[in-house]
Amino acid sequence: MSQSNRTQGGHIDRSKTLRFTFNGSRLEGHPGDTLASALIANGVRLVGRSFKYHRPRGIFSAGSEEPNALVELRRDAHREPNTRATVTELFDGLAANSQNHRGPLRYDLLAVNDYLSPFLTAGFYYKTFMWPKAFWEKLYEPIIRASAGLGRLSMQEDPDAYDKGFLHCDLLIIGAGPAGLSAALTAARSGARVILADEDFRLGGRLNAETLEISGDSGADWAQATVAELSSMDNVRLMPRTTVYGAYDHGIYGAIERKTDHLADGGGKPRQVLWRIYSRRAILCAGATERSIAFGNNDRPGIMLAGSVRAYANRWAALPGRRVAVFTNNDDGWRTASDLAAQGAEIAAIVDTRERASLAAPAGAAVSMGTSVVDTKGRHGLKGVALSNGSTVECDCLAVSGGWSPNVHLTCHQRGRPVWRDDIAGFAPGPDLPDGMRVAGAANGSLTLAAALREGHEQASAAAGELGFSTVAKTPPAAEDEAVEASAFFHVKNDGPRAWIDLQNDVTAKDVKLAHQEGFRSVEHLKRYTTLGMATDQGKTANLLGLSVMAECTGRTIPETGTTIFRPPYTPVPIGAFAGRARGKEFRPTRLTTSHKWAEERGAVFVEAGQWLRAQWFPQSGETRWRESVDREAAAVRGSVGICDVTTLGKIDIQGRDAAEFLNKVYANGFAKLAVGKVRYGLMLREDGIVMDDGTTARLGENHFVMTTTTANAVSVFRHMEFCRQCLWPGLDVHLISATEQWAQFAVAGPRSRDLLRKAVDPEFDISSEAFPFMGCGEVSVFGGTPARLFRISFSGELAYEIAVPARYGDAMIRALMEVGEEFGVVPYGTEALSVLRIEKGHPVAAELCGQTTARDLGLGRMVSKKKDCIGNTLSERSNLNREDGLSLVGFAPVMRNDQLSAGAHFVSRGKPASTENDEGWMTSVAYSPELGHSIGLGFIAGGHERMGEIIQAADPLRGRTIEVRIVSPHFVDPEGERQRA
Amino acid sequence: MPSLVANSPLGDFRQEFDGLEVAEVTGLAIVSIATPHGREAELAGAVLDAWGIEFPPVGASIESTAGEIRILGLQPGQVFALFQRDDERPAEAIARKIGDYGYYTDQSDSWAILRISGDRSREALERICALDLHPDVFKTGGVARTVMEHLGVIVLRDKDDAFLLLSARSSAPSFLHAVVTSAKNIQ
Fold first, then answer.
1. What is the pLDDT, as a whole number, of residue A791?
2. CATH top-level class for B28-106?
3. Which of B1, B3, B4 has the highest number of chain A CBs within 10 A, making it the mutation to test binding with A?
4. Which residues does B83 contact at the CB level (< 8 Å), separation at least 6?
5. Where do the structural domains in chain B lie, given as residue ranges?
6. Are A611 and B171 inside 8 Å of each other by CB?
7. What b-and-e string marks burial along A325-357, b requiring 16 or more CB atoms within 10 Å of the CB?
8. Smallest CA–CA separation between B65 and chain A, in Å?
9. Homologous superfamily of the A162-288+406-466 domain (CATH)
């Protein structure tokens, strides 16, 4: 019968029916149900198999602490393993499957592990399966791995979308139970900006699961009224389905909001949003988690936390059993018995470990005081329990209440340690809370409803007061203090059947004792050795039980034994949520030059240069190999004229009365005397004398310079100069602003470049060699009045210019330049040809300015001025940087003309083996030179300038190639530099 | 001889969503004004004479009464002037107006400008902007430099429910994607 265990009442919407499947069985539930409550309503008891022994398991709890009821949710690539049925909101069409079994759930083949359990105790893999040695990796480990574990990944890319975001508030209230709602109400009415977050989809916490009253109303009604009031206030943000999973520095909290997990179809919207919440104050109202008691065979389906059984009955009108026994060590278990009886369950027995109890038992319940449950029966579901007094009780559900543990997790995320409280037999938050955090209610160890409401109110008043808000209401909502007396009883001592401590990891009391016997005394070691408290539930229901057994073994108290460290996240957060939308191409931004669209139209092949996409070459029809395109482009520049987009180079606008002096200090070579209208090559050193960057700087006016940097170092050079300006020489009047984005800049290079530019630059500007000589610069206009800057500089070694126009004209400019250049056979060239041309000229780039080389190594030692002070000049004089046998940048040509050089090859003298001790330097850059018709290279070699003509080996063990090369001048083309001055 | 036609970084993008609109703003000139050491008062005086407004502190902007210019306080010693761009050389236009009291750099082509407006604009920006944009904290006229999705952004709240976002021109398509994704994700 459908929903055979459904009773009356509850916070579910019976007017709608939701259909779902579990292991293919078609079942029904209602809005307001979780998957777990719907399964219980349908009488499903067996929901999974345990981690190691494959024991049958049922639903154990009603919240995020669930160790057993983990399912695989959704299908195909959307499949998510290890989803807790207890917090999965039911939706129409939900499909869930149990996990961790071979064959059907009911007849799991790997249940044989349970019979092998003597061989599978804690740390068994350290002690067994040792021989033969070779079998471990090939046989034992794969078998163990295959039989252990939880759910299966889909092994496909996650098709769901995720997002991130940032929130700010005066007061973050974590948890919307009685303490959280009371705190939120007080804080919100004071006018403070409040965020109230709760992991549940229905706010109210235990008020929805219990029958206590507040101010004369049912707790659940009060919660709904409070939520309604809060949601009407502009200064309140209610965040249901949101878990605050971590407490970080400065009042920052991590939270995961489940946006569409409760919908059959999320419509492509982000499934979850990871929030970073900046709070001025926070109040932790995370409640408490009930713990179990360890006794023989305490893991059968039907054995559940008592408060959870109560929650299923009250909130979801779903009875986990018809004949329920209660095993408790505290008053709360008795309240469970009363509530269940009121919902129509038969209370078979109340078994209390204490001698006396203050509450009355429901009618008909047999009460056994000073008694324990020692064993249970029922393979696939509980059938009865055996008591320490020798009697047995027939029942289909055992509600176990071992007391409540405050959810102190977030109080400990910054190394805070909880403190033991005898009255609740549990750990409560210690004094060293994260900055700005307060704790209220059960999370603070105040377990009664009245105390929760009072503390929520008081803590919110105090926090709001600290922030300058005044509280309106002076008293908290009224409620009674229910009986909560508890005793410290954690496990039933006997030598009989195994007693489970950690259900998720199949850790028993014997395992803890064994770990102690084998010398694991620290609680952290205990955790690692036994896996107690690991995996998705992080031992929320298990840790204290484990500690109690450990304490007993060591003869210490539980507080002396201590707890393991609590770390974020409080509950599992999908990796996808941490990635957010930063996937694929969206992982980082892309920067495009203004000629990008035009280059795309011409079929350019692009390369990533940092965030930039640059045209690498422009293939023409008939060209099948990249070298054909590159050779053609490089030859065209040497033969006529080519155009290359050089926008990506960093451009820094430098102005101020002391701009020249500033440049004189940051560059190794002199700039103070650079004339207006001139450009100079500049070399920048780090403080330690190593080369930082190079580029050209143009003087546009007396107090106005424009610096170019390499593409890669545009940001770091700007940052360095800001540091110099603000911290080293704050007295200088100098101002920097990036102009990289402002100008679209094109290199126009080749013997016909001037001819081409005469057709672009407006005729009133004389760009003849006399009027506009090499290393000249000036402001001009192009194509009838568009402002432009012209620099006569050359990277290729040819007669060449760089011309810049405001970026809005970049696209039009490249098209216009190509149009007017047509008569000269202009070609666009990409970064590969640019590289060929500069290698032919021996110009260094990042491969040579690699953060290890000095100006002297680069053959630019004379540029480091001795006449002035500049960054790096003193330390550049260190003796080790000036050794006679130091590295020199020189050229290399293959001895066998057809040999190809390879970058990264290391130089070794002829006749010596290619080993580290014979290493004399390395090849930094290579290219095929169309001009020379063979491969050429640049590289550093010890004493290079003294070794011109020497033949050495270029060993490239990585590619398995060693060839002979001749040391030559790095200036392969036009060594005198006549072309660029033409 | 061909003449050059300007284009905007985002092709005059405009899209409406439920509760907000994202649109490219074109036609604005942006000129950086740096204050020479020791001449702060003179520059402020020149600005006051020219447009009748004070020099804004960092984090604030001041618009002239006639609305022809808004000055954004960006960092000590540096402001941005935003005004209608009707001159190919806006830095020189500023120099003509207030004289040789500052160092001027044209930034009009350095930035793509998006306006995000409407009731839900703040909700969309929550997904990418770490700043607190609550109107009590980030008031109308407020200016801040921040980072969204790895991109530097200048945020100006020019109306109660409208923000001007300036981000680098070269990465403008990535920035637009970030903003539009945020708008879509809250729908």
1. 98
2. alpha beta
3. B4
4. B28, B29, B31, B68, B69, B70, B90
5. 14-26+110-185, 28-106
6. yes
7. bbbbbbbbbbbbbbbbbebebbbbbbbbbbeeb
8. 29
9. FAD/NAD(P)-binding domain (3.50.50.60)
User: Which residues, in sequence order, are CB contacts of A586 under 8 Å at separation 6+?
Assistant: B177
User: Can you give the residue ranges of every domain in chain A?
Assistant: 1-155, 162-288+406-466, 321-399, 591-648+742-837, 650-738, 883-982
**ipTM of the complex model:** 0.97
CATH architecture of A650-738: 2-Layer Sandwich (3.30)
Alpha-carbon span A79 to A881, nearest angstrom: 60
DSSP bridge pairs for A909? A952
Domains A162-288+406-466 and A321-399 share a fold: yes
A276 and B130: CB-CB below 8 Å?
yes
In A605-664, DSSP assigns E strands to 605-609, 612-617, 642-645, 650-655
Q: How many CA atoms lie within 13 A of A888 on its CB side?
A: 19
- Say what the pLDDT of residue A143 is: 82
Model confidence band, residue A150 (pLDDT cutoffs 50, 70, 90) = confident
Mean pLDDT over residues A191-220, rounded? 96
Domain range A1-155, CATH class: alpha beta
Q: Do A759 and B77 touch (CB under 8 A)?
A: no
Residues in chain B: 187
Nearest to A813 among B4, B8, B132 (CB): B4
A509-517 and A543-554 helices, crossing angle to 10°: 40
Contacts of B126 in chain A (CB under 8 A): 165-167
Predicted TM-score (pTM) of the model is 0.94
Query: Residues 6 or more apart from B87 whose CB is under 8 A from it?
Result: B29, B93
Contact at CB, B8 and A808, closer than 8 angstroms: yes
- Residue A99 to residue A114: CA distance in whole angstroms: 17
Contacts of A816 in chain B (CB under 8 A): 2-4
Q: Is the pLDDT of residue A43 over 80?
A: yes
Q: What is the number of helices (H) and of strands (E) in chain A?
A: 22, 50
Task: Using CA atoms of A145, A148, A152, A155 in order, give the dihedral in degrees to the nearest 10.
Answer: -10
Distance from the A970 Cα atom to the nearest Cα atom in chain B, whole angstroms? 35
For A591-648+742-837, give the CATH class: alpha beta
Angle between helices A831-841 and A626-639 (to 10 degrees): 60
B-proximal residues of A, 647-666, CB under 8 Å: 647, 653, 655-657
Q: Rounded distance, CA B140 to CA A413, Å?
A: 38
The top-level CATH class assigned to A321-399 is alpha beta
Architecture of domain B14-26+110-185: 2-Layer Sandwich (3.30)
Please, are residues A813 and A820 in contact by the beta-carbon 8 Å criterion?
Answer: no
Q: What is the mean pLDDT of residues A211-234?
A: 96
Strands B69-75 and B78-84: antiparallel
Long-range contacts, A359-363 (Cβ 8 Å, 24+): A359/A331, A359/A334, A359/A335, A359/A483, A360/A334, A361/A334, A361/A337, A362/A337, A362/A338
* Amino acid, single-letter form, for residue A333: G
Which of A852, A761, A747 is closest to A797 using CA atoms? A747
The predicted pLDDT at position A896 comes to 97
Per-residue pLDDT for A213 more than 50? yes
With a CB cutoff of 8 Å and minimum separation 6, the contacts of A331 are A357, A358, A359, A482, A483, A484, A485, A486
Distance, CA of A242 to CA of A253 (rounded, Å) = 12
Q: Round to whole Å and give the CA distance between A522 and A55.
A: 29
pLDDT at A331: 93
d(CA A872, CA B31) in angstroms, rounded, equals 34
Q: What angle do CA A365, A369, A373 make, to 5 degrees?
A: 85
Partners of A388 in the β-ladder: none
At the second CATH level, the architecture of A883-982 is Beta Barrel (2.40)
Report angle CA A689, A691, A697 to the nearest 5 degrees. 120
A589 with B129: Cβ contact below 8 A: no
